[in-house]
Amino acid sequence: MKNLARFFLLVFAAAMFWGLAGCASSSYQKGIRHYKPDDVAAAVRELKPLAEQGNAEAQFNLGSLYYQGWGVPQDYREAVKWLRKAAEQGHIFSQATLGTVYADGVQGVVEKDYPQALMWFIFAAAKGDMEALEFRDSLVKRMTPSQITEAQKLAREFKPQDAYTKSLQEFRALAAQGDAAAQFKVGLIYYKGQGVQPDYLEALNWFKKAALQGHPLAQYNVGYMNEKGEGTPQDYVEAAKQYRQAAERGNQLAQYNLGYMYEKGQGVLPDEVQALMWYNLAAIQGETKARTARDRITIWMTPAQIAEAQRLAREFKIVGK
């Protein structure tokens, strides 16, 4: 699970944003942080599930892409949603960017809100963001005493865990109705201890509920927790079973891990052909560890074994599609 968090090289540009009416058009526009990956389509594929799992870095990056309309349809509402999720987790660049958005407003999406803007600048400046510090001091000169007082009150009363508590309540209600995505999210909240004490047993319980409905990320997480012995005794056989179910639904991390288990004979009989097949499938989706493993294992495999693994990979069809 800890391996779920794959970090991305960030390129932050304090660049001038294009002059769309009502879209960060004042001097604050330089505060908008942009994320610019080399492969946008791959970045979006990687970011979305991580952002949904609560990864603040991924949430910020995804919000930035939506704001720019880069690799996804431009959607300021969606951008602000993801930026806020990251900001509420204490992500400094999201806080500074959100302050910029509220300072200028986004036509039809976000009204100008100086107290909100100042609150986020205060948070980012307190963490050492010099640009947020500059914006904070500049914004104060444009605000009334009552607005400043309101911003200070918001900052004092802000409790990040409130967002998680609200999310947990909402997700649990849906999860109780059998919603697999909600069950998965409840599991994540308990696993990461977001607004609650970390509880691997409770997390595993919810992941299992979602996994039984074919949720591939939940299946991966159940496999991971069985492999590592988190919330349950270590069980390689169960781990391999869950990884297989997620791998067959196209989860690249599960494909890599299943390949590794076949290579090492953990929970399954050693089978280099099967290992290479799963490494190949994960590598095609951009899993760098799978590429390394694929290149390593083929050194001692016979041409016939390699050809068979390639055939199996070509004929593989994702379950449910």
Main beta-sheet annotation: none
SS-based structural class?
mainly alpha
What is the molecular shape? elongated
Indicate the percent of residues in helices.
Answer: 55-70%
* Beta-strand residue fraction: under 5%
Ends: how far apart? 26 Å
State the domain count: 2
Number of strands: 0
CATH C-level category of the largest domain: Mainly Alpha
Unreliable parts: 1-31
Count of individual helical segments: 16
Rg (CA only)? 23 Å
Rounded mean pLDDT is 84
CATH architecture annotation of the largest domain = Alpha Horseshoe
Furnish the topology, listing elements before pairings.
Layout: H1 40-52, H2 56-68, H3 76-87, H4 92-104, H5 114-126, H6 130-140, H7 145-157, H8 160-176, H9 180-192, H10 200-212, H11 216-228, H12 236-248, H13 252-264, H14 272-284, H15 288-297, H16 303-315
Helix pairs in contact: 1-2, 2-3, 3-4, 4-5, 4-6, 5-6, 5-7, 8-9, 9-10, 10-11, 11-12, 12-13, 13-14, 13-15, 14-15, 14-16
